[in-house]
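User: C-alpha cells for this one?
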Amino acid sequence: WKLEGYLFPDTYVLSKKADPETVIKKMLGRFDQIFDEDMRSQAKAKNMSIDQVVIVASIIEREAKVENERPIMAAVYYNRLKKKMPLQVDATVLYALGKWKDKVFLKDLKVDSPYNTYKYAGLPVGPISNPGKSSLVAALNPENVNYLYYVLKKGGNGEHVFSNTYSEHMKAVSANK
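Assistant:
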C-alpha cells in the first residue's frame, strides 16, 4: 500500500523512541482529521474518489508557490481533463525521474512512466507529493476560469501567467524566458 499523498505534512510531537509505524499512523491520522467528512462529501458531489482528489492536490502542492494560485491551477487541470488534453505538468515528469530540479528538458519528457503526464493522458497513477490542506481545498474548490495553460513568470517570485489559448500561452512563454 503506497502512503504517498496521505502522510499529512505537519509539525508532530513525538517521543524519541517512536518507531516508524507510530509516526506513520500519526501522519495518516492527521490526514483523516484534515480530509474530514465535509471534504469527503465535496469529493463525492464532484464524482471524485479520495485518491483522485489527493492526486490533483499533490500536483498543486508541487507546482504552486503562490497561495492564491492553487485554485487556479486546479481549474487548469480540470479544464484540460474535461477537454481530454494531457495535463503536461513538469512536476509529474520530475517525480517520474525520481529527482527534483529547476528545469525540465525535452529529453526528460520522454521518460516512460505512468506518472509522466506529457506521455500519458489523465491523472497519474498516484500522488506525487503529500499535499497540505490548502492544496486539498484547492483541488475540491477550483477557481471558475477557462485557463488551459500556465508558465512560470520570470523574476523568481513563483507566480505564473495563466492563458486560455495556446497562442496566448506561447506569447507568455516567450515573454517569460
